[in-house]
């Protein structure tokens, strides 16, 4: 338990789905360890770190060099020291023929285990996947192309392009600077009551959301289609890929019911979202997310989280890029948030979309669980609702869930040292222990 308290990280944004985590000691300049730890961080944090190490180099060059070294701060920084930073060439979108004829890799093995999985791609290499069969074989995702009837996809896109005119970038404090999230977003829920509850009760990275809206007519119209497809894909995944054809431990057995949607807008090739897993606090363990992409095609990257200690080699990680064209539905399955990280990589070039121009709209439909609403979950000593996390890096207690204070998430706040193991039954229902949880 102590390990988590002393390794507590400072979170830097108020972006609901995302983690911008930085160790408190991360900016001591000149240390390779700092740079290599930073390889887990979102692009904007990596840039801030590189910038602090190489203050005379402009941001655009830093980004270019970072991309050329596949996001490794350590390698990018070392290249500066060597005086040979590699610039990325044109043609950032890779190509990959079908993997179907390659042997199975075991990448999508959903059993939560600290064992080092076999990976298809090595660090520094990205495997580009386009084929839905390859994607479900090698990642914890399923992709359905041409998901909606074409006119429905276009009307949803048009509606959300209009909405996105008033989306804002989330700002967060990075040391003494105010940094902006690298895309704009808004959050949609089912009713005005829900809007108010979200604004008053729910905390994201220790902060309240100010921009919460009611689901628009098109978002509501599409929701049952997404619900039906995601539930079908969950069952298919269980039947064909999970051990014994059974749902995972902690995965809820009932149907997935989306009741909220985050909408992101990426305006131009440089807008992105850094590596993160989505917070489980309100979704619970083994959460499934339905993610619909519209407009410009972009790369959705996934990377398995490997335990760090022991003799594991963190450099063994590879990343996989999933091509997400207009009107594709990506299902992030139950093994995704605990065991993998995902990002939207900045692109060097994009193909403009006839309706959206340079913009990509992404909607993540989510199932917010009543039993995990902030009035029912443990509160820390600061009297704030605690956040739910899972042990991802340590072999000891690997895969265990815990509640901790969100105070350290807010810039300038230290937070308290609250820590409590989170207990769930096999179906993912919280098991409150006496007064610790409020849902008994
Ligand atoms: O834009 C995407 O496809 C992913 C967005 C995402 O990861 C999030 O909102 O948490
Ligand atoms: Fe996400």
Automatic annotation (TrEMBL):
Q: Name one Pfam family in it.
A: Zn_ribbon_GRF
Q: Which UniProt keywords apply?
A: Metal-binding, Zinc, Zinc-finger
Q: Name one GO molecular function term.
A: dioxygenase activity
SUPFAM superfamilies, alphabetized: Clavaminate synthase-like (SSF51197)
> What are the recorded Gene Ontology BP terms?
DNA alkylation repair
What's this protein's name?
Uncharacterized protein
Q: Name the domain of life.
A: Eukaryota
Task: Specify the GRF-type domain's residue ranges.
Answer: 380-425
Q: Which CDD domains match?
A: CUE (cd14279)
Q: Which Gene3D superfamilies match?
A: Alpha-ketoglutarate-dependent dioxygenase AlkB-like
Provide the Fe2OG dioxygenase domain boundaries.
257-369
Recorded hits in PROSITE patterns, A to Z, give: FE2OG_OXY (PS51471), ZF_GRF (PS51999)
UniProt entry tagged with the keyword Metal-binding: yes
